[in-house]
Specification:
Number of domains: 1
CATH class: Alpha Beta
Distance between the termini: 74 Å
Radius of gyration: 26 Å
Organism: Chryseobacterium taichungense
Protein name: VWFA domain-containing protein
Largest sheet: 6 strands, mixed
Oligomer: single chain
CATH architecture: 3-Layer(aba) Sandwich
Number of helices: 10
Strand order of the largest sheet: 3-2-1-4-8-9
CATH topology: Rossmann fold
Length: 294
């Protein structure tokens, strides 16, 4: 009887053996939650926005920018509303490089830095909508009134600031750049061989990129932007507002070629480069780029 009892105990112990729990992987990389987004808007406040220097009878370029920003904000809020409140961890902000001298513009910029968390009140949606409906226009009006167009140092922004300002490891990072496509700033003007930190209409002419074979010439001469960063694989970039000077039918294509090659060299995850079209035409593209539903 005792033998049967001991045998029964041994069988029970074996059958009740528990698995040793697996230890968590401390050094394993965390998985990016692409449902949380970090949107940045870099605005080129050069004389491209001046309605007198660059007039447009259909819609002034600064007004187009304002509407682009409104569409970006719409896409941002649509994304957040599609999630459960407990998963809110999203942010959006506006940048200039260099910062404008007008303190009002810098104050507006601070107001436009918004973030949503699981503790965000529902009324905050209306607050954000109000800010993005009013403040961007004030920024452009202040810049135009000031008339001191310093240009936009986009190259330096990508070299020294884009990783710190626009990329969060645990989020899907999207950078919108509002510019005419030309890149120039006195503080960052240099060349390395045939590559430059800037692009102007004058440079395009000097490089003889005015004919249909401009692509082969760019490849042969290795024209382009100097690489500003090594690995931007966690960044999506959408350039809005490409506006070439008149006189060269290939100018716009050359500008886009420069930007595309630059993004490829810096290993940007995804990119789109769009002309200064009417906001009603670009809004669907902006909304798709934020939703990720291409």
């Amino acid at each position: 009887m005792k033998k049967i009892f001991y045998l029964f105990m041994i069988i029970s112990l074996i059958s009740c053996k528990q698995e040793i729990p697996k230890r968590p992987c401390i050094n394993c990389p965390s998985k990016i939650d692409s449902n949380n987004i970090n949107i940045s808007i870099l605005i080129d406040l050069s004389d491209r926005i001046d309605p007198e220097t660059n007039p447009n009878p259909t819609m002034p370029f600064f007004q187009r920018d304002v509407e682009y920003i409104k569409a970006i904000e719409k896409g941002f809020l649509n994304h957040i509303k599609s999630k459960k409140i407990i998963t809110y961890d999203d942010q959006m902000q506006v940048f200039f490089n260099p910062e404008p001298s007008d303190p009002k513009i810098n104050d507006f910029t601070k107001e436009l830095k918004v973030s949503f968390t699981k503790n965000t009140q529902r009324t905050y949606f209306d607050e954000v909508d109000k800010k993005y409906s009013e403040l961007p226009l004030h920024i452009y009006q202040s810049a135009i009134k000031d008339g001191n167009y310093l240009g936009s140092d986009i190259w330096e922004f990508f070299k020294n600031k884009v990783k710190d300002y626009c990329i969060k490891d645990d989020k899907r990072n999207i950078l919108f750049i509002l510019t005419d496509g030309y890149m120039y700033h006195d503080n960052t003007k240099f060349a390395e061989g045939n590559k430059t930190s800037y692009l102007t209409s004058k440079l395009i002419k000097a490089n003889h990129l005015t004919t249909s074979d401009f692509k082969s010439l760019i490849e042969k001469k290795t024209y382009g932007f100097v690489k500003a960063n090594d690995n931007l694989s966690n960044l999506e970039v959408i350039v809005l507002g490409i506006n070439p000077e008149k006189g060269n039918p290939f100018e716009e294509a050359v500008i886009k070629e420069y930007w595309e090659n630059w993004f490829k060299e810096m290993k940007v995850k995804k990119y789109e480069i769009k002309s200064a079209d009417l906001p009603s035409n670009l809004e669907p593209i902006i909304l798709k780029s934020i939703s990720g539903k291409y």
